[in-house]
Amino acid sequence: MQHHRSPTRSALLRTLVALPLALAASLAAAQQDPASFPLDSVGYLNEELPRMEAAIAAKDRSFFHGAMTRTVQFSECWGFKSQANPDLAKYPMCTEAVMDYVVVGMCKLNPSGDVCEPGLASRFDANVQRCREVAARK
After folding, report:
1. Are 71 and 64 in contact (CB under 8 A)?
2. Alpha helices in the chain (DSSP H)
3. Rounded distance, CA 82 to CA 74, Å?
C-alpha cells in the first residue's frame, strides 16, 4: 500500500520548514547595519554577474529562475523588496542594481522581451558602478 500526502499536509510541512527561515531572515535584517548594505550588495553582484554572463553565453534560461530566487532572498534579507527599509533610502543605486540584475540578464538573452526598455542596461551598469564607489568608501 502506498501512502499519499494530502496537499494540505504537504503545504503545512513546507510552511513549517519555511517559517524558521523567514524568521531568521527577519531577525538578520533587523540586526544588520545599513551602512554595510552597499558592500553587501557589491559582494552579491560580484558573485552573481559572472554566473549570469556564463548563463547568457550558454543560452541557459533556466539559470534565471535560481537567480531570481537568490535576488528575492537577498532583498528580503535587507528588507527592500517586500517592504520599505527607510535606512536604505540613501543607497538607491544599490537597491536598483540588485533588483535590475535578473531583468538585465534576461534582456541580454531576449532583447525584444516586454520588460527590455531602452537604457535599462546602461542604467544598470551606472548603478553598479555607483554602488561599488559607495561601497569602496565604507
Report:
1. no
2. 7-31, 37-57, 63-78, 92-109, 120-137
3. 11
Instruction: Note whether residue 8 is domain-resident.
Output: no
- In the predicted structure, residue 136 carries a pLDDT above the cut 90: yes
Overall number of domains in the chain: 1
Range of the domain at 132: 33-137
Q: Would 28 be classed as within a structural domain?
A: no
Asked if 48 and 67 count as a contact pair (C-beta separation under 8 A), the reply is yes
Instruction: Please tell me which residue, 14 or 71, carries the higher pLDDT value.
Output: 71
Residue 4 within a domain: no
How confident is the model over 111-125, as pLDDT tens digits? 988 889 999 999 999
Mapped onto helix, strand or coil, the DSSP state of residue 84 is: coil
Contact of 108 with 56, CB cutoff 8 Å: yes
Instruction: Answer yes or no: is 122 within a domain.
Output: yes
Phi, psi of 33 (to 5 degrees): -80, 120
